[in-house]
Write a structure and sequence with these properties.
mainly alpha
């Protein structure tokens, strides 16, 4: 058990370090952009053209790389529990920066697959996981609201990334852009880990949420279910399935966004700009769902997230320039922002924080694996049908299933109830 306070230096709310840790961990999450589908998407057509490979081949390389990287997540989560998010962010951040820079040297399908494996494992998987654990350890009662703000900040940063990357590609080329982005990741993430991340409140004599230690009070211990205990619960698998469905389908849409919106009559630059309205949806949904998750039953927040995803898929099937494409962008952003807040709030509420890295690592494996399937499903579906419409409509069945499952009993217990 990890002691939450050593009682040696009673904290005050004014000196609470959790706000700084949450802010810096959120910046780290934004720095995963070059390993996220939303960031990779603007490079897809350049890979296809310059490497002379098909869209389906690129999607398959992305699938293999994402699945391979995802298999490491349970081990990464266990390592975060053992060594702490500070050390994890320091090591992974440095390796991720190198992997991003090396993407500038891909020459064919093999090196592209290796590159996808590296940036997906280190960025989308490991670095995102470490930043979430860092925040969860510092908050309890306020966790939903804080996670919502963090998810909103992350959504804003990730939505801006395609536009920034696209402008950089226009100015200096796609290979040079990978080099510059890798340098930025190193210069931002490594100093944050070294100087700003603190593993536990007790490391600086504080308590979660900035609570003040009462003289003579016995120190509290960090508690939590083991991964084995968590995986024996119904709610873990329903939540993980809901998160995975957003990962799969939103990734499939975002990966093909340039082509998808191109079918609707938008240029490449206009399609890239449509990532920006996602900020609005992600921001509103992330903040709202974080606050709601602190105050309401778990059975309500997961279905809302699934309903947003269903709406995004239907809009994707009938997207057209003007109001329709804006509605699509806002809704797909809202689906992602909502589920990030829901997952970040419910997992520690249900299973505690002691083994959160290990539990989240398994959830991330499922998440990453699902996100790997999305681009392939949409790319092959387009090849077979000639458009993305049929694929988008057919895949609405997935979030519909998890919406219904989340309404059943077994989704409301907290760790204290187990």
């Amino acid at each position: 058990m990890h002691i939450l306070s050593d009682m040696s230096t009673p904290p005050t709310r004014q000196s609470f370090s959790g706000w700084r840790v949450a802010a810096l961990a959120s910046v780290v999450a934004v720095m995963t952009a070059p390993g996220q589908t939303i960031g990779v998407s603007v490079f897809i057509d350049h890979f296809i053209e310059d490497l002379s490979i098909s869209r389906s081949a690129v999607a398959t390389a992305y699938l293999v790389g994402t699945l391979t990287g995802g298999l490491t997540m349970p081990f990464v989560g266990r390592a975060i529990d053992r060594h702490g998010p500070r050390r994890a962010i320091l090591v992974v951040g440095g390796l991720f920066a190198i992997a991003v820079a090396l993407m500038s040297g891909v020459v064919g399908i093999i090196s592209l697959t290796v590159g996808f494996t590296s940036i997906r494992m280190l960025g989308q998987g490991s670095l995102s996981l470490a930043s979430r654990v860092a925040i969860a350890r510092w908050f309890d009662r306020r966790r939903g609201a804080v996670v919502g703000v963090s998810a909103t900040f992350m959504s804003v940063g990730l939505a801006l990334a395609p536009y920034v990357f696209n402008r950089s590609i226009d100015a200096i080329g796609w290979r040079q852009t990978w080099l510059v982005v890798g340098m930025v990741v190193a210069l931002v993430v490594v100093p944050i880990a070294w100087f700003g991340i603190i593993d536990w409140p007790s490391d600086v004599g504080q308590l979660a949420d900035g609570e003040v230690v009462i003289a003579g009070e016995s120190p509290r211990e960090a508690v939590g279910s083991t991964r084995s205990e968590a995986t024996r619960t119904y709610r873990f698998w329903v939540l993980s399935g809901a998160v995975a469905s957003v990962a799969m389908l939103a990734t499939g849409l975002n990966f093909n966004q340039i082509a998808l919106l191109g079918e609707a009559g938008l240029s490449g630059s206009q399609a890239a700009l449509m990532f920006l309205p996602q900020v609005i949806g992600a921001s509103v949904a992330g903040l709202a769902m974080g606050a709601i998750a602190d105050r309401t039953s778990s059975r309500k927040v997961v279905p809302v997230s699934m309903a947003l995803l269903i709406g995004a898929l239907v809009l994707a099937a009938f997207v057209a320039p003007g109001v329709m494409v804006l509605a699509y962008a806002v809704t797909i952003g809202a689906a992602g922002g909502a589920i990030r807040s829901v997952e970040g709030t419910l997992l520690p509420r249900w299973f505690g924080t002691l083994h959160l890295g290990s539990i989240s690592g398994l959830s991330t494996l499922l998440n990453v694996g699902a996100s790997a399937l999305g681009p392939v499903v949409f790319s092959l579906g387009r090849d077979l049908t000639g458009s993305f419409r049929a694929v988008a409509l057919a895949t609405t069945v997935i979030p519909t299933i998890f919406l219904l499952l989340a309404l059943l009993p077994g989704m409301t217990k907290t760790f204290a109830d187990t």
